[in-house]
Amino acid sequence: MNAHTKAATRARLLGKLVRGRAAGHPRHRALLDAARHLHDASAALLDHADTDGLPDDADAAIWAACRAFTSGDTGLEPALLWYVTAPVTGHAPELAELDLIRPMFRYRARDLRARRLYVIEMGHLDSHDEDVALAAFSALLDLHREWGQLLDDARDELRVDRTRPVVYRTRDGSRSAEHLRGHLTVFEGTRVVASLDVPDHTAPGEVWQLINQAGTAA
User: Fold this and answer.
1) At what angle do helices 56-69 and 3-22 cross, to 10 degrees?
2) CA-to-CA distance for 37 and 25, rounded, in angstroms?
3) Separation between Cα atoms, residue 207 and residue 209, nearest integer Å
4) For residue range 187-208, what is the model confidence (pLDDT) as tens digits?
5) Could you count the other beta carbons within 10 Å of the beta carbon of residue 147?
6) pTM score, two decimals?
7) Residue 217: pLDDT band by 50, 70, 90 thresholds?
């Protein structure tokens, strides 16, 4: 199976998955449109199976499916479309490294990356068992949706400029600290009372403990 045939099969199967979710869905027309565009993309890829690159008509059909995916609350993740074209383009969606602070956010990000890697590395998208391939697409749909939820939940952390120190100050103003990734400097007035190497993702509660301990030790 060459790259174009592989991509065509992926397009057909994703279209089948999308069509199966259309029944009773509030956005059923958008889902049916997306499924139709994926069918067109599959046909175009098969028609150009002996060429290089993504055929123009397949590319147009994929982008039409993308517009249908994003036309309201369809529950579909556009990232799935780039798994379809990946055998031809060589570019599959990635889950970016995030500069997260809270341990729970970091755990969720690691778990999602591991789940994605398992699906990809096991080759489930190209399984000869159609049920396995459909389950792989369904799993990718779920994890990319969860990734989007993680980005939303962690948006405040992700807005923080970690190249500048986070400043802490006690209520009475007697002590302060500057936390720059990997390092914490604790002050009493203008005097440095501690200069500590700390893990990159030390949580705020742990930082306050270090500030209090440094003050006590001083």
Assistant:
1) 30
2) 18
3) 5
4) 887 788 888 888 766 777 888 8
5) 22
6) 0.72
7) very low
Q: What is the pLDDT of residues 3-36, one digit of tens each?
A: 999 999 999 999 999 999 888 888 889 999 999 9
Three-state DSSP class for residue 193: strand
Helix (H) or strand (E) holding 197: strand 191-197
**200 close to 182: Cβ distance less than 8 angstroms:** yes
Are 61 and 47 contacting, i.e. CB atoms less than 8 angstroms apart?
no
Q: How far is CA 35 from CA 65, 128, 196, in A?
A: 7, 21, 56
Amino acid in the structure at residue 14: L
CB 190 within 8 A of CB 176: no
Cα(113)–Cα(143) distance, integer angstroms: 9
Alpha helical stretches, state H, the chain = 3-22, 28-47, 56-69, 79-89, 103-121, 130-153, 155-159, 204-217
What does the CA dihedral 30, 32, 37, 38 come to, rounded to 10 degrees?
A: 120
Query: Can you tell me the distance from the alpha carbon of 162 to that of 15, in angstroms, rounded to the nearest whole number?
Result: 42
Residue 7 carries which side chain, given as an amino acid letter? A
Residues 124 and 76: beta-carbon distance below 8 Å: no
